[in-house]
C-alpha cells in the first residue's frame, strides 16, 4: 500500500518500461542499465500471465441457467491446460446477475476438492461490496486452512484466492453497473479491500471498466481519469489494476495513449492487466500495443465467451485460444497448452449452445478434421 502512497500527490514520474517482447526486440536492444523496479529477468520478460475469465465473465451474461456441474467441469478442464489463474465466480446480487447465483457452491467445491492441474492455481471471485465479501467469507470460514494466504505461494493442495472489485471509468457506466457514482463505489471498495486483506489475507484485483469507450458516453473516455481511479485503488491496497475495454471500442493509438498516461502517473506495468473484448476485432492489435508497452498480464475467455450485462451490444472477451496462439507465435511463453484450450473451447460452446468465437479454435479444429480425413496426424 505504501508503494503508492505518494501517487495521490500526482507524481508524474515516468518509470522505465520492461524490456520489449522478442518479436519487438529488433526495435531497440535491451538496456543493460535498466532500472525498472520490476524483478523480471530476461527470461521472465518473455513470460505472460493469462487470466482465464470464462467461468465468470464468459458465462455471466448467459440467459439460460448453466448447471453447477457444467461450471465446475469448465473450471476443472481449464485448470488442466496450464492456466494458473481462473476467475471462477461473482458474489454480486442474484437479482442483478442471476447466472452467478451459485458462486458460493463453486468456491466451496474448489476449496474442498483440489483440482488436478500441472501448476498451483489461483481462483478469483468478484465482490462489489461488503455484502458480497461477507457471502464469500462465510464459505472461507468453513475452510480456513484450505487456501494459501497472500504472500504464501499456492500449492496443488492449497490454491490461492483473490477478490476482485470493479470500478468504472465513466459515471454513466458506474450507475448502470453498480447503481452508484464512482466516488461511492470507491468508498465501498476501500472497505472491501481492507476487509479482504485484514480478515483472510486475500490478494485483491481491481477492475476499471469502459477505459477505452463507454456504451453511454462514447469513445472519449479521459485517460487521466482512468489513471486517477487506478491510483486511488492502488493506494487502497489493490494488488493489480485490470483495465477493461468492456465495449471493445479500444484502438491501438488509444491503448497506447492510455498506457502512457498511466505510466506517467507512476502506475507500474507489473501492476496492470489488460482485459480486452473483441467486439470490433481489435483485441489482438491492442494486446500487441500493451505487450510492447511492457504489460505482461492479459485476461481472456475460452471460446471467446462473454459480454457484460450492462454493456449493450458488447460481445465476448478475446478468446484464450487466440491469445495463446498470438503470444506463442511472438516467442512469448504462456505456459498454456493450445490444443488443450481448443478442446475446452469446443466443449463449453457445445455445452451451452453458443458459436465458438475463437478464430484459432476453429482453425485448429478444422485442421484436425482435415488431417483425420486424410488419415494423418492431428494438427
Ligand atoms: C453492486 C450491487 C449489489 C448494488 O445493488 P443495489 O441494488 O444498489 O444494492 P443494495 O445495497 O440497495 O441492495 C439491494 C438488494 O441486493 C442485495 N445485495 C446487495 N449486494 C449484494 C451482493 N453483493 N450479493 C448478494 N446480494 C446483494 C441486498 O441484500 C438487497 O437485497 P434485498 O434486501 O432487496 O432482498 C448491484 O448493482 C450488483 O450486484 N451489480 C452487479 C453488477 C455486475 O455484476 N456486473 C457485471 C460484472 S462487471 C463486468 O462484467 C466488467 C468486467 C469486470 O468484466 C470488466 C470489463 O469488461 O470491463
From TrEMBL:
Domain of life: Eukaryota
Coiled coil: none
InterPro entries found in the cross-reference section: Aldolase_TIM (IPR013785), HMGL (IPR043594), PYR_CT (IPR000891)
Name under which the protein is recorded: hydroxymethylglutaryl-CoA lyase
Protein's UniProt keywords contain Lyase: yes
GO MF, one example: metal ion binding
Family: Belongs to the HMG-CoA lyase family.
Pfam families from the UniProt entry: HMGL-like (PF00682)
A Gene Ontology BP annotation from the UniProt entry: ketone body biosynthetic process
Keywords: Lyase, Metal-binding
Region of interest (Disordered), ranges: 24-46
Amino acid at each position: 500500500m505504501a508503494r503508492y502512497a505518494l501517487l495521490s500527490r500526482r507524481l508524474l514520474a515516468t518509470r522505465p518500461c520492461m524490456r520489449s517482447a522478442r518479436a519487438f526486440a529488433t526495435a531497440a536492444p535491451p538496456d543493460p542499465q535498466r532500472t525498472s523496479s520490476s524483478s523480471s529477468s530476461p527470461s521472465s520478460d518473455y513470460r505472460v500471465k493469462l487470466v482465464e475469465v470464462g467461468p465468470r465473465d464468459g458465462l455471466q451474461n448467459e440467459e439460460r441457467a448453466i448447471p453447477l456441474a457444467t461450471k465446475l467441469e469448465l473450471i476443472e478442464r481449464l485448470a488442466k491446460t496450464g492456466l494458473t489463474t481462473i476467475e471462477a465466480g461473482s458474489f454480486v446480487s442474484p437479482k442483478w446477475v442471476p447466472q452467478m447465483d451459485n458462486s458460493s457452491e463453486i468456491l466451496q467445491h474448489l476449496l474442498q476438492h483440489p483440482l488436478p492441474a500441472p501448476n498451483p492455481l489461483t481462483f478469483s471471485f468478484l465482490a462489489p461490496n461488503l455484502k458480497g465479501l461477507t457471502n464469500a467469507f462465510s464459505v472461507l470460514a468453513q475452510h480456513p486452512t484450505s487456501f494459501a494466504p497472500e504472500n504464501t505461494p499456492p500449492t496443488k493442495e492449497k490454491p490461492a484466492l483473490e477478490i476482485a472489485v470493479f470500478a468504472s471509468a465513466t459515471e454513466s457506466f458506474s450507475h448502470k453497473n453498480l447503481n452508484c457514482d464512482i466516488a461511492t463505489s470507491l468508498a465501498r471498495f476501500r472497505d472491501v479491500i481492507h476487509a479482504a486483506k485484514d480478515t483472510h489475507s486475500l490478494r485483491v484485483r481491481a477492475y476499471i471498466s469502459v477505459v477505452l469507450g463507454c456504451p453511454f458516453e462514447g469513445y472519449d473516455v479521459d485517460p487521466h481519469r482512468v489513471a486517477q481511479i487506478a491510483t486511488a485503488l492502488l493506494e487502497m491496497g489493490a494488488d493489480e489494476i485490470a483495465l477493461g475495454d468492456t465495449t471493445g471500442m479500444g484502438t491501438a493509438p488509444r491503448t497506447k495513449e492510455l498506457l502512457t498516461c498511466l505510466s506517467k502517473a507512476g502506475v507500474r506495468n507489473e501492476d496492470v492487466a489488460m482485459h480486452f473484448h473483441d467486439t470490433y476485432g481489435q483485441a489482438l492489435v491492442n494486446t500487441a500495443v500493451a505487450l510492447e508497452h511492457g504489460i505482461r498480464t492479459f485476461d481472456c475467455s475460452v471460446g471467446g465467451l462473454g459480454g457484460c450485462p450492462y454493456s449493450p451490444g458488447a460481445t465476448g472477451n478475446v478468446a484464450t485460444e487466440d491469445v495463446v496462439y498470438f503470444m506463442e507465435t511472438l516467442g512469448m511463453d504462456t505456459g498454456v497448452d493450445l490444443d488443450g484450450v481448443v478442446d475446452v473451447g469446443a466443449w463449453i460452446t457445445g455445452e451451452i449452445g453458443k458459436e465458438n468465437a475463437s478464430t484459432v479454435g476453429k482453425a485448429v479444429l478444422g485442421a484436425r478434421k482435415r488431417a483425420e480425413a486424410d488419415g494423418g496426424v492431428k494438427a
